[in-house]
Structure prediction request, 431 residues.
Amino acid sequence: MKTTRPTDVRERALLVGLGLKRAPRVPGHASDEVARESLDELAELARSAGAVVAGSILQMRDAIDPASVVGRGKLEEIRAEATARKAPLIIFDRELTPVQQRNLERGADRRVIDRTQLILDIFARHARSREGQLQVELAQLNYLLPRLAGAGPELSRLGGGIGTRGPGEQKLETDRRRIRERVRRIGAAIETLRRQRSLRRSARQAVPLGTVALVGYTNAGKSTLFNALSRSEVVVSSKMFATLDPTVRAVRLPSNRRVLFSDTVGFIRDLPKGLLAAFRATLEEVQQAALILHVTDVSNPHHPEQDAEVEKVLAQLGVNDRPRLRVFNKIDKLDSDTRKALSSSNGNIYVSALQGTGLEELLRRVDEKMAVDPIQRLRFSLPVAEGRKLALVHGLGRVLNSELRDSKMIIDAELPASLVRRLQLEPSSDA
Prediction:
């Protein structure tokens, strides 16, 4: 008989959102609307972590209460609501200080985690590579280290639910010195893996294959698009942060040259800076890319705000000057009138990765935009006996015309510059 581990039990959670009445974060949106959107996103994050959302509370305040965030009266209301909904876990839609978290746990008499801890938990679920797992653990330890002071019963519960997955009870009950030593060792291991990855990337770059990085808000459909373009089988899920470890696949463009497409972690509003640093592997692919595809879920009514968050992260990564294409995905979810109104005159590309719509146009535009190993049009001749060279011309280039003259092939073709150099091709005197 199969037994279910405690970590597999879906926890009931009460969500608490907090909005400030002054200065809405998004122009044209009321403060409460912005706070509600963020709370809805928190619900999706909680479900991705395996929680059952038992209910939610939204409070609008003039200022944050420095001790308990919400104030004593509201905390009593939250405790009563959590009791009524049988929710042993409360998740706050903001990052809490160690003091605030302890005060909230005492006042609510149940576990309290914040948005950052929830995201870390999801990352711990989805990291598959050794480096990804180490990066998650490092981020968790750095997050929890300042919370060890004065934490008694909180630590005894770690390892038993959402927001506690990863380092585990034994490691977290050790003293600060041992935790710092663990952080140092993880950092050294990650650096070793980073150097190995850098060597592999250098080996890749020895062959002039440009990299195209797919970036976008979480759940924009990047992995579905990546699979459609590369004919791969990367895990696709509606859950947030389903893709954490970078995946790279070669794709042949209409010009017949090959490029590398890289699927990356989805971004999200208020993503803690520590998490950006933790997932250096996937973000390095963005920083090294010759072209960035910014993928947007055009069917999401809030996609302009989501796009703005992506732009913030790209600015932090220092890639604002990198060539970029805007790809609006999921047009299959739009009604026919809205789809007809879409215009590509502004340079945007509209696709449905699920149905394969617009992918040929996308590849054509990528082909035009890629500066790495540019395409040259050349008329040249090769002896018929040079079978290997002729095969490379047909295999890696696009032959526009060819004719046989006196045991020579006169060829008019579009070829990658690297192939022209490799075969030492010269313009034909027969041209």
Summary: The radius of gyration is 26 Å. The longest strand covers residues 52-61.
